[in-house]
Amino acid sequence: MSAPPVAPSPLHRPYAESAARVDLREAPANGARAHEFDVVSRGDFVPGRLDRPTSGDALPLALVLGGSDAWTAGTDRGLAIARIDLPLLGHRQSPKLTDRLRSGHDRLLRDLPLDADTRALVEEFARQSVSDVVRTLEALGAEAGIDASRTALIGVGLGASAAAWALPFAKGLTACAIAGPARALSDEGLDPVAPIAAADLGPLQVRLQVDASEVEAGSTRALADALPGAAAPIALDAETSEGELSAGDLSATLDFVANALTR
C-alpha cells in the first residue's frame, strides 16, 4: 500500500468531495465488455472508458493515462483496462489552452523558462491530473468485478509526467509503467522526485521507459533512483505523435503490468 508523503505537496490539494463513484454506461466494443463513465474530481468531470474481458470477476485493473484504443489489448491478458482523458486532452481539450499546455510541458522538461501564466497552467494540469488519478482509482476500485488490491498505473506522452506526479498519492498500486518524457525537474514545485522519495510506496514494481537519447541523462537517472528498486531506465523502440507507443513497446508494457498483477 502506498501512502501520501509526510510533507504537504502543491501537487495534491484534494477538495472536500463525497466518495468517488462511477456510473457505468454500456459502450460499443469488439470482443470485450465496455463501458463509458465519468468521475467527479475537484468539481470537474473526468470522462473515461472501461474495457474488460468477456468473462471473469475480481479482475486486476490498469489505469492508462493517454494513448489510444490499442491499450484494450490488455483485456486479452486478463486485465480490466480503464482510460481517462487528462485535463485539456482528449474530450477535455481546449482550442485556446491545449497547445499552450503542450508547449509549456515541453519547455519544462527541457529546463527552459516559462512565463508566469504558462507555469500556472502546467501546475494546474499536474494538480488536476493527480486528483483525477486518485479519484478514478478510488471509484473503479469500488466497482463489482474489480480487484482493488491489484491495480496498476500506466502513463504515456503527457500521461507519463502525470503518472510520475500521481504516483506518491495513488494508494495501493501494485505496478506503475511510465513510458515517455518523465524525469527530475529543476522546477522544485513540479519536480516528481521529492514526493516520490518521501512516499512509502511499498513493494511497488515500476517500469520506466524513455527516449533512447534520454536513458543516460542525469535527470532520468535521478527519477529512476527515486523509484522503488531504483528501476533502470529502458529505451523506447519508438514514440509517435501524441505519446502513442510502438506496437512492441505497448505489448511489452502490457506484459509487464499483467505479470505484476497476476502473480
Brief characterization of the structure:
The chain is an alpha/beta fold.
Looking at this protein, list some descriptive labels.
263 residues, 21% strand, Rossmann fold, single chain, 9-stranded mixed sheet, disordered N terminus, 6 helices, alpha/beta
3D architecture notes:
This protein is an alpha/beta fold. The chain has one domain: Rossmann fold (3-Layer(aba) Sandwich), CATH 3.40.50.1820. 29% of the residues lie in helices and 21% in strands. A 9-stranded mixed β-sheet has the order 1-2-3-5-4-6-7-8-9. Helix 1 crosses helix 2 and helix 2 packs across helix 3.
Number of helical regions: 6
The pLDDT mean sits at 90
User: Could you estimate the helical fraction of the residues in percent?
Assistant: 25-40%
Characterize the biggest β-sheet.
9 strands, mixed
Separation of termini? 17 Å
- The CATH C-level name is Alpha Beta
Structural class: alpha/beta
Stretches with pLDDT under 50, minimum 5 residues: 1-7
CATH architecture: 3-Layer(aba) Sandwich
Summed up, the domain count is 1
Query: What do we call the CATH topology?
Result: Rossmann fold
Number of strands: 9
Report the portion of residues in β strands: 15-25%
CATH homologous superfamily caption = Alpha/Beta hydrolase fold, catalytic domain
Encode the helix/strand succession as letters. Answer: EEEEEHHEHEHEHEH
Major sheet strand order = 1-2-3-5-4-6-7-8-9
SSE layout:
Elements: E1 25-26, E2 33-41, E3 44-52, E4 59-65, E5 80-84, H1 98-109, H2 116-141, E6 146-156, H3 158-166, E7 175-179, H4 193-198, E8 205-210, H5 218-226, E9 234-235, H6 247-261
Parallel strand pairs: 4-5, 4-6, 6-7, 7-8, 8-9
Antiparallel strand pairs: 1-2, 2-3, 3-5
Helix pairs in contact: 1-2, 2-3
